[in-house]
Amino acid sequence: MNERNVLTIVEHTFIVDLKYAFQDSNSLYLVMTLVTGGELQFHLKRLGRFPEDWIRFYAAELVLALEYLHERGIAYR
User: Fold this and answer.
1) In this predicted model, what pLDDT tens digit does every residue of 23-75 receive, in sequence order?
2) DSSP calls for 30-77
C-alpha cells in the first residue's frame, strides 16, 4: 500500500507511472506504464560488464529519481 500511495503522488521521467491500482481480498494490483527494453540486471548478466559511459548514464538517472523522492520527503527502500 505504501508503494501505491507514493506512486499516486510522484511524477518523474525516471519513475514508472502508476495508471491504476485495485485489490481483491488477497492482493493489491498495480497497473503501471509498460517500459520496454528489459531489466538492467538481465543486460548486465548478458554483457558481464557495462561500458563506463552506460554506467554514468544509469547512475545519473538513479540519482535524479532519488533526489526527486527525497525532496518530497520520501525515502526509497
Assistant:
1) 999 999 999 999 898 888 999 999 999 999 999 999 999 999 999 999 999 88
2) EEE----S--HHHHHHHHSS--HHHHHHHHHHHHHHHHHHHHTT----
